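Action item from last week, closing it out:
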Amino acid sequence: MGRFRGTKITGDILDNRQEHLHAFAMVREAMAWLDRTLPLAAHFPPGKIFREDRLPVPPEALREVLLNAVMHRDYSRPSSYVAVAVFDDRIEVRSMGGLPSSVTAESLSGEHRSVLRNPLIAEAFHRTGAVEVWGRGTNRVFEACERYGLEPPTFAEDGGFVIVTFRAQIGPIPQVEGPSRDQVGTKSGLSRHQVQVLEEALEPRAIGDLMQLCGRSNRTKFRDQVIRPLLEAGLLEMTIPDKPRSSQQRYRTTEAGKRLLKKDK
């Protein structure tokens, strides 16, 4: 699993993880990584009082593609693998092993027979209720993207891989002194929420207080996308650095963070 800066595989690698897990855990870990990596947008649907949080791609579509990638991978080749790559303009899921001879990339968007490369693995997923046996998985992917207002993914074969590509605006990651995984919001290259945190943490603050001030509800995403890059950049510090998970932990803006705030203003 990798997050690349820009739109090419030659861009800077901003996150690179290799996991060696069983089939079920691979899908769970890939979905969890995508949830942490992809930006989360929020809007208020007309006529509703609660906001709606949205990833760039419907989660159910990503899950279905990941399930298929794991189930149809060519396990007869010891070097085979499944890869998930996130760029600024797309998400790619690659699985080593071509399509069955009776299935084409074009046919996946319509009705087609379910042809199993690994029947035992597919049966294990079916018995858990994760998948069905009617070959409708890719159809559900297209339907989910249509409901989302997103262009459906493309399916292609290249160099022994099946590649599924979701075109979506993931957004650039700014180049600052420390890595940031949120969108650019100021001249300093920090996001709006990162600036808010630095401003509010001039006096030590608990992470729950900072989340509330920023209007964020997902603690993991807030820590990974907002707090951690500021810590790594030396703009924010812990009041109890030797016990990062302490219930008494507070965060405060460093002198470097204060200078950056002053410069940004």
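Closing note: The radius of gyration is 21 Å.
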